[in-house]
Amino acid sequence: MPSFATDSWLDQKVKRGLLIDCMKSLGLSMKRKRKYNKERRARMTERLMIKPSHAGSKAKGEKGDADRGSEFQKIEQQGTAE
Predict the structure, then answer these.
(1) Measured between alpha carbons, how far is residue 71 from residues 6, 61, 80, 82 in Å?
(2) Which of 1, 17, 35, 67 could be 63's S-S partner, Cβ–Cβ 3.0 to 4.6 Å?
(3) Which class for 15: exposed (0-12), middle (13-18), buried (19 or more C-beta within 10 A)?
(4) Does this model's pTM top 0.90?
(5) Distance, CA of 78 to CA of 81 (rounded, Å)
(6) How far is 53 from 20, CA to CA, in rounded Å?
């Protein structure tokens, strides 16, 4: 496995050039990094701001909170009646 430690000036010169060439060939730059971070923050903010929709779960046959509450009340009433 190659080492990125620089023991001599020649080592530093060669490895620095290699890293710069790799970054250029991949198209990586600070401008691109800032753009990526900005888009990532926007996606994260959007995801956190969206309220979950319970309508989709009701369509699948699941019961909403109001339906569950009425069921629990019925069960409690049956338990106290016995």
Answers:
(1) 70, 15, 14, 17
(2) 67
(3) middle
(4) no
(5) 5
(6) 48
